[in-house]
Design brief:
Endonuclease, Chain A, two-stranded antiparallel ribbon, 7 helices, elongated
């Protein structure tokens, strides 16, 4: 487990405030402040803080050390904190680079399950504020559960070609998302050629797919 000094240093590396950290992991700012002052907090709270930084490429070293992990071509995220980190990365990447977002094999009930309705609402509101992207989503034919229809276009994949293991191309990244019974696993591949290759194949299928909403 990390200590308060490491938490403060990790926040500095990520350039986030106590309030921002608290909001992302559903704790109070006072809990974060107390922890950084060396006061005791619950084990669950410490685990949430540690998991958040781990999912955001922060490594903790001996003697209160903190460092950013080397940037790998593949970043692996897990669970609720990992999914939140992934959606934050989507937002930050799109905010900076814009462009075309292509998402395939989406059952958006998974997004609500792993972000909660309130969490997704916050993400949706910040995405709607951006005006620099074009968002395309493939869902299963017959699915009428739309949560991004205010800023995305939907088309249908025939049921025989659909599974709920999702692919997400944004910026120079391609994310592979596996939804399991008790967790979610995300592998983010930072490779502009792979991201663009997925977009090419995606758009080939898109041209012949049934339009749902736009």
């Amino acid at each position: 487990m990390i200590n308060g000094k490491q938490c403060r240093a990790a926040r500095a590396l990520m350039d986030i405030s106590q309030s921002e950290l608290a909001e992302r992991i559903d704790l109070t700012r006072l809990t974060i402040a107390n922890f950084e002052k060396g006061e005791k907090i619950s084990l669950n709270s410490m685990e949430s803080i540690t998991s958040f930084f781990d999912n955001n490429s922060i490594v903790f070293l001996p003697n209160d050390g903190v460092a950013a992990k080397p940037v790998d071509e593949v970043q692996k995220l897990y669970g609720r904190e990992g999914f939140a980190a992934f959606m934050n990365d989507v937002y930050e990447t799109v905010k900076k680079h814009g462009g075309e977002i292509c998402v395939s094999n989406v059952d958006e009930k998974n997004w609500i399950e792993w972000m909660t309705k309130a969490g997704y609402k916050k993400h949706s509101e910040r995405m709607k504020e951006l005006k620099n992207f074009n968002f395309k989503i493939f869902i299963e034919e017959g699915d009428d559960f739309y949560i991004a229809d205010e800023f995305a276009e939907y088309r249908a994949v025939p049921s025989e070609f659909f599974c709920d293991q999702s692919f997400y191309a944004y910026g120079d990244k391609l994310a592979l998302i596996a939804f399991d019974i008790d967790t979610v696993r995300i592998n983010i591949i930072k490779n502009p050629k792979w991201a663009e290759s997925f977009r090419v194949l995606f758009n080939f299928a898109w041209q012949n797919a049934k339009v749902l909403r736009s």
